[in-house]
């Protein structure tokens, strides 16, 4: 674009990106409908789409003339996903959640039959949680573990050793299956003094671009602060934070 003023280049780029976004949201558009959708003339749209087609970001059917995304967008998406780091992606939402609820936030991944704590954002004004980054915990009696188990394929309870950690730990396989069904219905899991006697946790699953559960995020605190009534308020907040992290990982639902 040598010789083209910088302002004109910037305007053309913004218009081309608007065209690309519109095709993304409305695949199968003719030139006329695409021009109407972005509020530009057909000749301008033809000019803007030419380099997008060359870069394989757009395709135009030779017979029908309709536009759709090209396979170059897939390569871009794959390259983006390959560079994602779960901790980095989740960091902003984890800190935001801690600020909202003023309780410790954990991020974990599944390493069957355990969960592994890979990040922790602690509210230092409260009593510190004993967990540490790199430590492992049982999946069946932690909120993060149950949040992951609930969305695994097959029967995630089969073969699990349901060790009793407190008098509240669920050790009956069928009862745990019912508990996981409840997690799927409401979108978050609860550890009600099941792993530590004086601690309650609320956790929600994190999904990747394929829809697979890859992690979980949770809020933890002493039962004096996280009462049974407060769990109902925290649940949707934790689930919303997990959903935002999932969106950054490419999940669509």
Automatic annotation (TrEMBL):
Span of domain IclR-ED: 72-251
Top-level taxon: Bacteria
Pfam family, one: HTH_IclR
GO terms for MF: DNA binding; DNA-binding transcription factor activity
InterPro entries registered for this protein in UniProt: GAF-like_dom_sf, HTH_MetabolicPath_Reg, Tscrpt_reg_IclR_C, Tscrpt_reg_IclR_N, WH-like_DNA-bd_sf, WH_DNA-bd_sf
Domain HTH iclR-type: 10-71
GO biological process, alphabetically ordered: negative regulation of DNA-templated transcription
SMART domains linked: HTH_ICLR (SM00346)
Keywords: DNA-binding, Transcription, Transcription regulation
Identification of the protein by name: IclR family transcriptional regulator
Protein source organism: Nonomuraea montanisoli
């Amino acid at each position: 674009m040598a010789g083209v003023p910088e302002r004109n280049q910037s305007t053309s780029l913004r218009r081309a990106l608007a065209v690309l976004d519109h095709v993304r949201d409305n695949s199968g558009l003719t030139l006329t409908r695409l021009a109407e959708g972005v509020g530009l003339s057909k000749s301008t749209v033809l000019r803007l789409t030419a380099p997008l087609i060359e870069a394989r970001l757009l395709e135009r059917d030779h017979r029908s003339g309709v536009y759709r995304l090209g396979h170059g967008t897939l390569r871009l998406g794959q390259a983006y996903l390959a560079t994602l780091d779960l901790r980095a992606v989740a960091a902003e939402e984890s800190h935001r959640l801690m600020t909202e609820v003023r309780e410790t936030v954990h991020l974990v991944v599944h390493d069957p039959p355990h969960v592994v704590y890979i990040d922790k954002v602690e509210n230092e004004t409260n009593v510190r949680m004993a967990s540490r980054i790199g430590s492992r915990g049982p999946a069946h009696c932690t909120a993060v573990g149950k949040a992951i188990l609930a969305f695994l394929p097959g029967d995630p309870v089969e073969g699990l050793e349901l060790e009793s950690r407190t008098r509240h730990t669920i050790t009956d396989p069928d009862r745990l299956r019912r508990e996981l069904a409840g997690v799927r219905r409401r979108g978050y899991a609860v550890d009600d003094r099941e792993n530590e006697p004086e601690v309650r946790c609320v956790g929600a699953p994190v999904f990747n671009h394929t829809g697979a559960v890859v992690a979980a995020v949770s809020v933890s605190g002493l039962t004096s602060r996280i009462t049974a009534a407060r769990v109902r308020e925290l649940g949707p907040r934790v689930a919303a934070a997990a959903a935002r992290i999932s969106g950054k990982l490419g999940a669509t639902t």
